[in-house]
Amino acid sequence: MTPAPSAIQDLAARHSKTGPADPSDVLVIGAGFGGIAAALRMRARGHSVTLVDRLDAIGGRAQVFERGGFRHDAGPTVITAPFLFDELFELFGERREDHLDFRPLDPWYRFHFHDGNQFDYRATVEDTNAEIERFSPRDVAGYAGCWRHPGRFLRSGSRSSPTGPLPV
Q1: Are residues 134 and 72 both part of a single domain?
Q2: Most CB within 10 Å of its CB: which of 78, 88, 114, 158?
Q3: Domain boundary among 85, 104, 123
Q4: How many Cβ atoms are within 10 Å of 84's Cβ, its own excluded?
Q5: Are 86 and 67 in the same domain?
Q6: 10-residue mean pLDDT series, the chain (168 residues)
């Protein structure tokens, strides 16, 4: 389920600052999850932040739209790192759980192929490897290779990067 951008909008609005421009003013271009996170982190450091986007609403790809009588989820549907959202609310002494309800999904994604096969991408590496093995056993090792670098990054903590700590 896509988190309601309004909860994140509300957090940003409650901690916005107005007034004349000064050297600590920050402009963030792009109001997807990354832009919102950058704006909130800068605001937590005391900067006056202006967040702009080409769309009418913030949230980037986390939009829902209607076309042809159908409702479409533009993504991201799956939040694989909810702790990053927790950090943003904690910066302002708030709890994400008081504003957003994340629900576990299984599978995260289900791919349907023209031949009738389906592939379920699940939360554990073991389950995903089992799915990969059903299609192509030799690709299990390749999938493991994809996770070598990102795995080190995620295990080291959300405020770290391969080159050192990230600023608040």
Answers
A1: no
A2: 88
A3: 104
A4: 14
A5: yes
A6: 56 59 81 93 92 88 87 77 91 95 86 94 90 94 78 50 38
Claim to verify: residue 7 and residue 37 sit in the same structural domain: yes
**Predicted TM-score of the model (pTM):** 0.61
| CA nearest to 143, candidates 131, 158, 153 | 131
CA distance 140 to 96: 36
Q: What is the CA radius of gyration of the chain?
A: 19
Range of the domain at 132: 106-162
Point out the domain boundary residue: 104, 119, 151: 104
Tokens linked to 133: 């093995």
Residues 51 and 119 in one domain: no
Instruction: Report d(CA 1, CA 82) in Å as an integer.
Output: 12
Instruction: Give backbone dihedrals phi and psi of 81, rounded to 5 degrees, phi first.
Output: -135, 70
Q: Residue 141 in 3-state DSSP? A: helix
Inside any domain, residue 118? yes
How many Cβ atoms are within 10 Å of 135's Cβ, its own excluded? Answer: 11
Q: Is residue 168 within 8 Å of 41, Cβ to Cβ?
A: yes
Contacts for 128 with CB less than 8 Å, ≥ 6 apart: 121, 122, 143
| Helices 139-146 and 125-135, axial angle in degrees (round to 10) | 140
